[in-house]
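**Paired protein data**
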Amino acid sequence: MAIDINNLGSGANTRTENRTKTKPDNNTANENAAQSKAPAGDSVQLTDTANKLRQLEQNLADVPVSNQDRVEAVKQAINEGSYQIDTLSIANKMLNFERSLG
């Protein structure tokens, strides 16, 4: 489509241009996508450290977040009324935490 740049101020040409704009054809988009792909012979090799890290991540994912036996023991102690809270220990740990923040 040719654009007449000499008559930019003309309202008629502007309206015509707005109506005749089209999407880019799919052949051009497909050619651009084909050019951006890496050659088929390229490969990636992970270092031994990366492989170990991946294995460690998998092992950590398999470990439960909490110790279910301990959770059940605390629940039972609370239900029986025998769970003892060491308020002095909690207060000291809170103070130490605050101090470590600076």
